[in-house]
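User: For a teaching handout, I'd like to show students what a predicted protein-ligand complex looks like in token form. I'll give you the sequence and the SMILES for flavin-adenine dinucleotide. Please answer with just the structure.
Assistant: Understood, here is the input followed by the structure.
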Amino acid sequence: MDLAFTTEQEAFRRDLKSWLAANLARPWNDEIRNPSHDENSLVEVRRAWQRQLNDAGYLGMGWPAEWGGRGASVVEQAILEEELWRADAPQVPNFLGIDLLGPALIHHGSEEQRRRFIPKMLAADEIWCQGFSEPGSGSDLASLSTRAEPDGEHFRITGQKVWTTFGPWSDWIFVLARTDAEDRYGGITFFLVPIDQPGVEVRSIRQITGESEFGETFFDGALARREHIVGKIGEGWRIAMTVLGYERGVQTMAYPARFEGYLSDVIEGVRRNGTLGRADVREKLARLIVENQVMRSNGLRTLANLAAGESPGPESSIEKIFWSEYAKRQSETALDLLGPQAQLTTEARHARPDMDWAREFLWARAGTIYSGSSEIQRNIIAKRVLRMPTK
Ligand SMILES: Cc1cc2nc3c(=O)[nH]c(=O)nc-3n(C[C@H](O)[C@H](O)[C@H](O)COP(=O)(O)OP(=O)(O)OC[C@H]3O[C@@H](n4cnc5c(N)ncnc54)[C@H](O)[C@@H]3O)c2cc1C
């Protein structure tokens, strides 16, 4: 295992940092501070940022050049994610399209689908969301019951999806739907479905944080065209599993970078309220700093494996559980140490818009649910890493 970055990788990081310094100056922080912005207009700010990244060749970097990428290594992709968090860049609005669907189209889609969808996905001309989870099918996704029935040459989709991130702003949704009720895994097909059509309705869900980033998506005989099936009929489960695998890996260095930034916000706040010298305060901060280092080491281990051509494997569950549970501990510690100050809008918090600790405390819960809940990760670790007996 080699945990050192090469000279070329360090050069890539340097170029990227200077590009970020020159281009993120727009500045995002001013935009979010602008009281005239609501959730809708912030999506437009994020769309503009996505276009800047795309024009500079920083989106879909690992993809072949013919599809807008530059065949970048997994290490360069991980460096990009790390530096974007360090620079406190906004998240692009089409992250589900780019992180999940794009690679799925490159590996499993038709030439026609790639030509039709990838350029508009990268340019944020069409925003994508993911229609996998249903009210009765989350962790046990294969139990999904949304169905696609043949209608002449094409299909009609009926059913309900839930927790559709970015659903309220999306143009297209990639949907897992049942084409065979008898075959649990082989009866699932992967469809690309336009949202703006009769028979599709997206209703926003207001979250505990006050935002409504999610939707519930209802299908009532919505048209899904045959040429918009990814892979073959009945291959949806296999494709979905590879798609979810893309979620892991290149994000591995992003979490420690993100939480390090948050940590400096807590330390700054504690310094300001004059308690930084207290032993109990220092101990709590030291614990977070050490845990962040552990997270980074874990991330480097995964990255080294990926760079050696291995798949993330069940060990990635250790990382998932670590960063998501850490996020909860960090926000709880921040509220504890900063007290009422954590609820105030201070200059420092303006400068780092995510650092509304009350919001972060509430939002951190979500990380232990999406991409496989902590309980599911523990099951995976028990069975596939520790090989514990199931009975
Ligand atoms: C922020 C966020 C964004 C999301 N975005 C999307 C999206 O864009 N598209 C999409 O399709 N979905 C999305 N989801 C849904 C997400 O994939 C599901 O919430 C997740 O799979 C869990 O399913 P569930 O909510 O139905 O909970 P359930 O599966 O019903 O679980 C309920 C509880 O039971 C526990 N549990 C379940 N099974 C087991 C088991 N076998 N052993 C032990 N404990 C178990 C779980 O850990 C949990 O605590 C999102 C969720 C969140 C929180």
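For the handout, you might add this sentence: Residues 346-354 have pLDDT under 50 and may be disordered.
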